[in-house]
Specification:
By secondary structure, the chain is mostly helical. The protein is built from 13 helices and 5 strands. The mean pLDDT is 96. The structure holds tryptophanyl-5'AMP.
């Protein structure tokens, strides 16, 4: 088993990232002896304009946020993509296997490009191929992600399969996505039909792992809801996306089923449920926020962790990259 996953170092770590992906990264650290590689996807971040002076800081801050969330740089290999050139190198080799038609189907590109398809960077279009390189480079078997990344992982499998077939060589392992059933898709607090995201202009739409207790409680109290009391079971949440999201967040945080939460809160209004959810969020996030605040200023320690991680990752990347060159008939 080899676990690989990444996160873009833009903006804050938010509750969607934490429940959808990072909490699984942390849990998988303890699961078996295989390598765990977790990285800051800085090469993905530059697909849209980023102020250069912000990118380096954001990368360190996201590393601090991951460590604060429980990623242990001694048990996991934590690094930033740009320090391991093999990612960009393999991406080029895989661009020649990926098909334009496959990329045209990527829903995240359609969402991000919107009506401006001709005006966005080539990198934004090609991004899922770099993502495929990220996991195929290490022969990843398991990739813990939120549901929005499922399509990108399917593309990685298609690329791996086509390459292995075209060049008659078993170079790449087909990776499996690991998607948490309870928190695969955490929605915005302002709109139950939109995903919680760093790019939402309203900060009220998300809980950041850096928010203090008052801010968290305020955001939960302001979260959009409907006027009905909570139902007694899961079926009663149908057609109530905001209620479904808040109950889902509670269940994921408490590690209990939605039905168990509704057995407790069914029949009560949001006036009772929201403060309980706010408290649970505050209690869960407090130790993470405290560790994050202690770490974030320590740039020397963070840089040395990332440099050490990149050295270990580079070693693991070398054999696959060499096999890919060889399979293609390229002389190195
Ligand atoms: P990114 O940075 O957008 O998100 C990081 C992780 O958080 C998950 N996530 C969510 N899960 C549930 N609910 C949400 N509202 C929510 N928002 C985000 C994402 O699914 C993801 O797992 N392209 C990737 C980064 C990446 C990557 C990779 C991931 C680059 N290379 C290789 C896996 C393997 C991205 O932009 O994630």
């Amino acid at each position: 088993m080899r676990v690989v996953s990444g996160i873009q170092p833009t903006g804050n770590l938010h509750l969607g990232n934490y429940l959808g992906a990072i909490r699984n990264w942390v849990r998988m650290q303890d699961e078996n002896d295989g390598d765990k590689l977790y990285f800051l996807a800085d090469l993905h971040a530059i697909t849209v304009y980023n102020k250069p002076e912000d990118l380096a800081n954001n990368t360190r801050e996201m590393a601090a946020a991951l460590i604060a969330s429980g990623i242990d740089p001694d048990r996991s290999i934590l690094f930033n993509q740009a320090r391991v050139p093999a990612h960009a190198e393999l991406a080029w080799l895989l661009f020649c296997t990926a098909r334009i038609g496959w990329l045209n189907r990527m829903t995240q590109f359609k969402d991000k490009a919107g009506k401006n398809r001709e005006g966005v960077s080539v990198g934004l279009f090609a991004y899922p191929v770099l993502q495929a390189a990220d996991v195929l480079l290490y022969q990843a078997t398991h990739v813990p992600v939120g549901e929005d990344q499922k399509q990108h992982l399917e593309l990685a499998r298609d690329i791996a399969q086509k390459f292995n077939t075209d060049f008659e060589a078993e170079v790449f392992t087909l990776p499996e996505p690991i998607i948490p059933p309870a928190a695969a898709r955490i929605m915005s607090l302002r709109d139950g039909s939109a995903k919680m995201s760093k790019s939402d202009p309203s900060d009220l739409s998300r809980i950041n792992l850096t928010d203090d207790a008052d801010t968290i409680m305020q955001k939960v109290k302001k979260a959009k809801t409907d006027p009905e009391p909570l139902p007694g079971d899961k079926a009663g949440l149908e057609g109530r996306p905001e209620a479904q999201n808040l109950v889902g967040i509670y269940a994921a945080l408490a590690d209990e089923s939605v039905d168990a939460i509704l057995a407790r809160f069914g029949g009560q209004g949001f006036g009772a449920f929201k403060p309980a959810l706010g408290e649970l969020l505050i209690e869960t996030l407090r130790p993470i926020t405290n560790r994050f605040n202690a770490l974030r200023q320590d740039t020397a320690t963070l840089d040395s962790i990332l440099i050490r991680g990149a050295e270990r990752a580079s070693q693991l990347a070398t054999p696959t990259l060499a096999q890919t060159y060889a399979a293609l008939g390229l002389q190195k």
